[in-house]
Design brief:
The protein is 22% helix and 25% strand. The strands form 5 sheets. Strands 1-2-8-4-5 form a 5-stranded antiparallel sheet. Strands 12, 14, 15, 16 and 19 form a 5-stranded antiparallel sheet that branches. α2 packs parallel to α9. It is globular and about 65 Å long.
Length: 455
């Protein structure tokens, strides 16, 4: 996990932001405070990441079924890099191909076959419904050697086939995300070929359990969806006892009709306050990290959140499925070195040194916020959504420095180092896959982004 040096960790947040209140409460946007409101707010933050996971599941499974397939215990490969048309998962990357599957281990394990990819970054992340990572297989953990992995739930007691490695999960429902690096446009066919070698096969013959509840914006739908998901199998040990405290707020594993059994007062609070509860998450992890040069470094616990429900919920809205820091560092910024929020009508310069301590790859991505607080790529004339150490045509200085120019119109000096911005607010995410120790412990810091002129 991230361990920024003590003398750096206490750096101030952005100059025009107040520190966040304790994790148990957080900001209250015009809300009166009562114990009942506070308790439902806590219940919402506990439930929201599960609801987001189910939203993604419903979207992905419906698209798979439209093509005569399923994503339950079957892997689906996306063979193009994510672009501005994708709205399924917030803050995606444009560096790797994605493959995914929703694993249901209640009837038995699945076998994962991974190819040997010693020279291409790849990872297979297994997440539970609360967005915690149960295991990560790939370049960092297996050395790119490939192999067979039997992924089994908590009740499985059968043998592990010869030549396979057992990966034990304490829950039955897992989301599997495969990331395979693409080294530029010319490399895409080879990356797709490598991606196709990731396969899963159920080791049993049993019908998949499908979700019956559907995503909705009202509290009745929220509770039904979350409760059905939580009732499908054992809860992670971190939450098995905690969930009981939210029963009066309607969080009841398996209780798809919990809304009907709620006290009228609780129903009224849910109906009145749900939009504000959600709005409180909009700043995402910009408000739950340490600011250095107006880049927010994530606080410990990313991808392994423990009982920090506010942190988990904010990341679920603005960076769902984020990897733990030892696999990938995500540094985010929404303002320049002077503390002024980004606006694409101005021109910005970001000078990246040539000695960034990463063992995998790095990139800086451009995002525009939507009204819900999620972040997505924007359409632009050159179809560029990120600049990284593999971007073709980027001009570097003699010392290896990369100067990225950001604005909503092409710069006068040409587009080689241009990262197109929207004509308004934007956010940057710097990704460092397989970060080195100097980045993890805070000895290496990104420089601030500088506004250099107006258009």
């Amino acid at each position: 996990m991230l361990t920024i040096a003590a003398e750096q960790y206490h750096a101030t947040r952005y100059r025009d932001r107040k520190p966040s209140p304790p994790a148990g409460e957080g900001p209250k946007i015009g809300l009166s405070y009562t114990p009942e409101i506070a308790e439902l707010r806590r219940a919402f933050r506990f439930a929201f990441p599960v609801a987001e996971m189910m939203r993604v599941r419903e979207d992905q499974e419906s698209r798979a079924q439209a093509n005569g397939r399923t994503m339950v215990n079957r892997i689906v490969h996306r063979t193009v890099l994510t672009n501005a048309t994708e709205r399924g998962v917030t803050a995606p990357n444009n560096d790797t191909l994605y493959s995914a599957s929703w694993l249901d281990l209640s009837a038995g394990p699945v076998m994962l076959d991974m190819p040997a990819l010693p020279s291409r970054y790849h990872s297979v992340a297994l997440l539970d419904l609360f967005t915690d990572h149960k295991a990560i297989l790939g370049t960092r953990t297996t050395g790119g050697r490939g192999g067979r992995y039997l992924i089994a739930g908590p009740s499985w007691r059968g043998p592990t086939p010869a030549g396979a490695t057992l990966v034990r999960s304490d829950v039955d429902d897992l989301y599997m995300i495969v990331r395979v690096l693409v080294d530029g446009t010319a490399d895409l066919p080879a990356a797709v070929s490598a991606q196709a070698a990731f396969r899963i096969e159920p080791m049993f013959n049993s019908p998949s359990r499908l979700m019956k509840s559907r995503v909705g914006s009202d509290p009745r739908s929220l509770l039904a969806l979350v409760n059905e998901a939580l009732g499908r199998g054992p809860l992670p040990a971190t939450h098995a006892e905690r969930v009981a405290r939210f029963a009066a707020a309607g969080i009841q594993p398996g209780g798809v009709d919990a809304w009907e059994r709620l006290a009228p007062k609780a129903q009224n609070i849910w109906a009145a306050k749900l939009p504000q509860f959600r709005a409180e998450l909009k700043e995402g992890w910009l408000s739950v990290g340490t600011a250095r040069n107006n880049w927010t470094y994530p606080k410990p616990g990313l991808g392994q959140f423990g009982t920090d429900d506010l942190y988990r919920a904010r990341v679920a809205l603005s960076g769902l499925h984020a990897l733990p820091p030892e696999e990938a560092m995500y540094l985010v910024s929404d303002r320049d070195g002077s503390g002024t929020p980004f606006d694409g009508r101005f021109v910005y310069r970001f000078k990246l040194p040539g000695n960034i301590p990463v063992d995998g790859f790095w990139s800086v991505s451009m995002y525009k916020p939507d009204s819900d607080g999620r972040w997505f790529f924007i359409e632009n004339a050159i179809q560029r959504y990120a600049i990284g150490n593999r971007t073709a045509g980027v001009v570097k200085s003699a010392n290896g420095e990369t100067e990225v120019i950001m604005s909503d119109t092409p710069p006068a000096q040409g587009v080689a180092n241009w990262l197109p911005a929207p004509s308004g607010p934007f956010r940057l995410t710097f990704r460092a896959y397989l970060p080195g120790a100097a980045l993890l412990d805070g000895r290496f810091l990104l420089p601030p982004v500088q506004r250099i002129s107006s258009q």
